[in-house]
Design a protein that fits this description.
Length: 399
Amino acid sequence: MSVSPSGIAPPQRREVPLLDLKVQYQGFKAELLPIFERVCESQAFILGAETTALEAAVADYCGAAQGIGVSSGTDALLLALMALDIGAGDEVITSPYTFFATGGTIARTGARPVYLDIEPDTFNLSPVAVQRFIDEQCSVGPAGLTHRATGGRVRALMPVHLYGQCADMTPLLAIARRYDLKLIEDAAQAIGSEYQGVRAGSMGDVGCFSFFPSKNLGAFGDAGLCTVNDPQLAERLRVLRVHGGKPKYYHSLIGGNFRIDELQSAVLNVKLRHLDSWTVGRQRNAARYCELFADSGLGGIVTLPRVGSGNRHIYNQFVVRVPDRDRLKQYLAEHGVGSEIYYPLPLHLQPCFAYLGGKVGDCPESERAANETLALPVYAELAHDQLEYVVAVIRAFYG
């Protein structure tokens, strides 16, 4: 048995993957296969009855008026930006501590991402940083909010509800109203999460969800969805997802091929019925981790996730801050425990965004999180002894 850097021998090795979708699949397989057969018999694979049902069900689940199924979470963000006419000469405020699609879609429209720092405890966009940027670097005039250094018009906020917890929306929504900014919720990791009792995806102009297989509600491939409350905006999103054509072959807009397919919608309709029970399982496991870490004496070493008062955290990931993170990750892997670093390099430091002029020190909390955070297994089907093993291995590492 190997000895940890602390000199303490770890417990007997066992396997605890970061995520095990095979176990989850066995729980709904019997429901799904007849529906797959029905879709195959219909030979209607694009924007059919399963998609219509999914759009209504997800909108209702999120507390939004309408849902528009799309091809991926990335395309949900891109479609939202396009529908809001954001493009060249515009700027969008967002977080640098997130998956690449958040900033990448802004850049793809020709707009300029403005990366501002996060709150250290929730990892979400800091309203204080947003207001400071507006006060110190922007001017308010007839054209709206102008970024003085670039001359660009600041048109939108794109907060990310990271890891399954909503951003601090009250001040962000107030900022959006005050400066006439559109607000796009990047809720890719947050379906079912709540801010002060209100569901993610129902607070801004557009909510954008990902159904990538590893998400709490995951398809069998790429899929996504936009939620909206404005019926005119919903119609614009629907037209843009089919190349901007309505009626067919007549194009008043330039859109794209952003359609969700029926087989993915069928999978999601079945899995949506199980989502709340899976969320309860993740929340139970997160609570058990907190107990185990407290009992293990690691409280001063491992910083656990903080849930905002009145918030519903769905734990798309269970992310801790730890010293010597990279060596811990390697040690966990050597002892059969899956873990992941989300995200090792903030967007303002990515080479493809060098043209924005970002540098080390611009977003210190995002940079610190990138160096200290590690996601541990938290999926609903984990057994208590598996959670105990994860904490025991970490305790062995730190001694």
